[in-house]
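Quick one, T. Sequence first:
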Amino acid sequence: PGDAFVLDADCELGVDGRVGLDYKELPRDVRPGDVLLLDDGKIVFEVEKVVGNEVRCRVRHGGVLSNNKGINRLGGGLTAAALPPKDMEDIRTAAKIKVDYLAVSFPKSSADMNMARQLLRAAGGEAFLIAKIERAEAVEPKALIDIMSACEGIMVARGDLAVEVGDASVPALQKRMIRLAREQNKLTITATQMMESMISSPVPTRAEVSDVANAVLDGTDAVMLSAETATGKYPVETIASMSRICAVAEDSAEVTLDRDFLDRVFTRVDQSIAMAALFTAYHLKVKAIAALTESGSTALWMSRINCGVPIYALTSQTATRYRCALFRDTYPLMVKYVGDDREELLEEAENVLVRNGVVQKGDLIVLTIGEPIGKAGGTNTMKIVRVGEHRKG
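Structure tokens:
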């Protein structure tokens, strides 16, 4: 602390007391007195003055600074583009290898997400987009809804977000973002330092157990590991611990169906069918809900509300199966069918559930299906079936 340090946009190789910048506009974005946080806030500088392309700083909190670490200004406000050239190239690569989900860093508005989608589609990609919420500007209510309108889900990226808004603000923001995403029928991934101690320890701290469990109880679809499995000593133990915590938390989650159902206004037939299936499944105490789906939308809508009944997304589309694996409380299964006979397809769906050990003879299940068969977004029928008694007609 107290040492001078220079962030130099013209410097290629770092030396003692001076490093280069990938973000060449930083000298235009900062002013004397600004606080800069590097590597998720592990290193803290205060800007003393800007001279040409040099940002001359004083070290508040020092540490080891390695390559390719992030930089933020306390309070946000950096004008860095959401999609620099490297990210654009990565999007083309993602399309080429046919990823299922693509996460976009630092979006400030729907325009950033729309640009990413245009690049992805132009490269032949069909991935679902996840917006990484990392900027202070992005958590403003209007901005957050705007961003959600242009993607399939969000990531609560707590590292950079905490640097910009302050770590004490993140827990409440996390809860609000997860709640809003569920209301908007979007996915949520909660990430950053969830099991950080397990980089070097075979067991998590009690605080980490609570952190993971609370994210699940808040309604997140997924929790994500980073350094714990990328560079940690105990990657297998970390995944096993997180899985165990999630399973117990899911079993303890409160059923929220009645309150959510009564407050909902439906604008689409397929969404209304999805919600009706949840309501029926809960009050009839069925064994499983089976959503025959082309795109996965019906299963997604069902998974936004916890009704205490497992959802099985039955699809003939491999891409849909992979995408549905991220939906909360949803288990994707492949079903093969030809033709357009609804009753034959429903019977095959029942057989798939039986073969996978999900249900047995005598169990009640709720099935949803769309007609014409094979049309995405066409779910318009719900049927209650007792296993072993399905008949055509």
